[in-house]
Amino acid sequence: MAYKLSLLDKIALSDTLPAQQALANTITYAQAAERAGFHRFWVAEHHHSKDWASSAPEALVSWLLAVTEKIRIGSGGVMLQHYSPYKVAEVFNVLAALAPDRVDLGVGKTPGGLPLASEALQLEFSDEKRLPFAEKAALLSRFLGGTPLEDGRFQGLAATPAPPVAPMGFLLGGSVDSALLAARLGWQLSYAGHLNGNEENLRKTIAAYKQATNGAVPQLALAAVIAPTREEALAIAETIYVYKVIFSDGKVFSLATQETAEEFARQSGRHDYRIEQQRGSMVVGTARDVSRELHGLHQRYGIEDFMLELPMRALEQRLQAIEALADVRLQLAA
């Protein structure tokens, strides 16, 4: 098998799993992933959430780098619309200086929370000075690595310290536009297959990225429900939904619960929307079933890095799943 496996952790909360324990579980999960030979471990960004404890990925990345040794650690991702590109570059340059050649900076375009949280995060921003996302990402890309800018408004300014190896940049997205932007930035594209399971869109996006980068292939993020038997995996998958708030202008936001989706719509102040309950886009089965699916995607598209989100809430289920995936890879490699 020529491809690598990586993990995304959203750090799920529940009535019986408070934040302190959920965050402690993330350490256990990352360390287990490292032992099992996974390539990357990323944490997400969600704000004012009853469902997830991952509101500050930069803090979690620092923590996880300190309790692991080799696995790459990163954000999946920093929601750049809320932040100064210069400050994000400073933070990740510090992290990359602490753990050279182990830091990934995944950047996302969505808000990662409800409108009220976005308003609070952007409290000091003015509409007149707000940069479009592509411009913010381009500025961030120039600051990564810590070398002074050679031209423009910030000529001579550097985001220090300069790490031995710059953080590796990823753009999270699921469209041809995202592919082209990632290519312009010189970043890898992390295709959000766990949010957009349309294979024709995947094909077009991969083709656009390959053409724009002289043959590079994006990372593919997928949700995978893995259990000892296919029947058990299907039973778990049947309990997992995503709630999409769909506005009349085509904007779509994915939320974890009906309650959160309704609150998102209320806080938006808009009335031109509908909420759809949908099955999540997932690969479902035993570790061997899932490995077979991944191998097929690798064969068809040349995917070399799969970023897996395992939406099973119980830590033990996720630990068993990554151990089973590692065992299957060893068996197939023998």
TrEMBL record:
Organism: Candidatus Tokpelaia hoelldobleri
Protein name: Group-1 luciferase family oxidoreductase
A GO term from the CC aspect: cytosol
MF term (GO), any: oxidoreductase activity, acting on paired donors, with incorporation or reduction of molecular oxygen
Family: To bacterial alkanal monooxygenase alpha and beta chains.
Domain Luciferase-like: 13-298
Pfam families, sorted: Bac_luciferase
InterPro entries linked to this entry: Bact_Lucif_Oxidored (IPR050766), CmoO-like (IPR019949), Luciferase-like_dom (IPR011251), Luciferase-like_sf (IPR036661)
